[in-house]
């Protein structure tokens, strides 16, 4: 067992244990243990458990994203202030002022990626479990918490004639090749489309004009188109079960973000204006967070914090004596 497999072993066991738990529960209520839909619902159950456990992380991500959006105007001013200054002291002062802005808003550039980073070990674990189904079934071995009998049942299970362990690139034993191709392509399109719509949803409805005009958001817009392409190309090697997992988790994220954007939008965003209009139509008072005063106060406090750091780091430049004219 190599180093990577040693790290992935507990994740593989946990992923397979959750799937087996749902599989046993569905079998107990009358579904066939060897039916592909029983295992498909078990994979969906795995998504529900993981995403429910990540709700606190998602809340932190939302707060971090709002903090990043609110500090964009001050960050732009900071970048303009040090534009063209390449000396070490200026770079150090800019970095310290930037960290002061991040600290004040309770965010950092990597917070938005946290839920995806936490999910990746489970994603790779499921990929390894499903990729090794056929070989383990032929050898009569179990995988993680799955017994040899359950591995065999999974290997023989299909939906629409396509095995769950099959992929577009490698096909699958005992399945309809055309069904594998059609279902894999449809699932890859669903996975990439749901990922694109999820990111587009944030940019179109939950960002202010200042945030959209920032250099940070220009990078995010590039990622909006790059990530679906990366997952789409990688999807040709994903087993159908993994495609089901990733599409389901994208749909969860989409629904979760729709609720947050509608009920708790970022101040100054189109969604915030729409919420204010809905509340006004119902005769309800505007929410405090939708006003510009609190945002402006936060920006002022952030600027003050950055100025304090600048005062500590700024050094007095020595005056050069005027040379005598010849």
Describe this structure in words.
- The protein is mainly α.
- Helix content is 72%, strand content 1%.
- It has a two-stranded antiparallel ribbon.
- A hairpin with a 2-residue loop joins strand 1 and strand 2.
- Helix 1 crosses helix 5.
- The protein is elongated and about 65 Å long.
- About 10% of the residues have low confidence.
Helix content: over 70%
Over all CA atoms, what is the radius of gyration?
26 Å
**Number of structurally distinct domains:** 1
Enumerate the strands of the largest sheet in spatial order, edge to edge or round the barrel: 1-2
DSSP summary, beta strand count: 2
Strand content: under 5%
Topology diagram in text:
Elements: H1 3-28, H2 36-53, H3 55-81, H4 88-105, H5 114-131, H6 133-139, H7 148-156, E1 158-159, E2 162-163, H8 177-205, H9 209-212, H10 215-234, H11 240-263, H12 270-281, H13 292-313
Antiparallel strand pairs: 1-2
Features of this protein?
single chain; 72% helix; mainly alpha; 326 residues; 2 strands
Task: Summarize this entry quickly.
This protein has 326 residues and is mainly alpha-helical.
């Amino acid at each position: 067992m190599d180093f990577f497999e040693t790290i992935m072993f507990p994740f593989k066991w946990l992923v397979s244990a959750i799937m087996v738990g749902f599989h046993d529960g569905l079998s107990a209520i009358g579904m066939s243990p060897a039916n592909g839909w029983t295992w498909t619902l078990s994979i969906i159950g795995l998504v529900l458990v993981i995403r429910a456990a990540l709700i606190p992380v998602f809340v932190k991500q939302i707060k971090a994203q709002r903090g990043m959006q609110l500090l964009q105007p001050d960050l732009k001013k900071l970048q303009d202030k040090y534009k063209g200054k390449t000396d070490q002291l200026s770079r150090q002062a800019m970095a310290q002022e930037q960290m002061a802005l991040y600290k004040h808003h309770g965010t950092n550039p990597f917070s938005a990626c946290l839920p995806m980073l936490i999910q990746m070990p489970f994603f790779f674990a499921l990929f390894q479990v499903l990729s090794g189904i056929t070989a383990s079934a032929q050898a009569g071995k179990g995988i993680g918490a799955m017994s040899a009998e359950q591995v065999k049942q999974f290997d023989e299970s299909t939906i629409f004639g396509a095995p769950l362990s099959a992929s577009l690139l490698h096909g699958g034993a005992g399945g309809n090749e055309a069904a594998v191709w059609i279902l894999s392509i449809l699932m890859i399109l669903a996975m990439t489309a749901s990922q694109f719509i999820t990111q587009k949803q944030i940019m179109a409805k939950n960002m202010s004009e200042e945030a959209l005009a920032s250099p940070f958001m220009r990078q995010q817009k590039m990622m909006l188109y790059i990530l679906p392409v990366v997952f789409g190309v990688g999807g040709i090697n994903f087993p159908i079960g993994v495609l089901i997992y990733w599409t389901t988790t994208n749909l969860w994220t989409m629904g979760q973000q729709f609720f947050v954007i509608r009920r708790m939008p970022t101040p100054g965003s189109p969604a915030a204006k729409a919420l204010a209009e809905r509340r006004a139509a119902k005769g309800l008072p505007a929410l405090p967070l939708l006003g510009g005063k609190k945002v402006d106060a936060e920006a002022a406090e952030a600027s003050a914090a950055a100025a304090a750091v600048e005062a500590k780091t700024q050094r007095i430049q020595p005056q050069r004596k005027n040379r005598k004219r010849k």
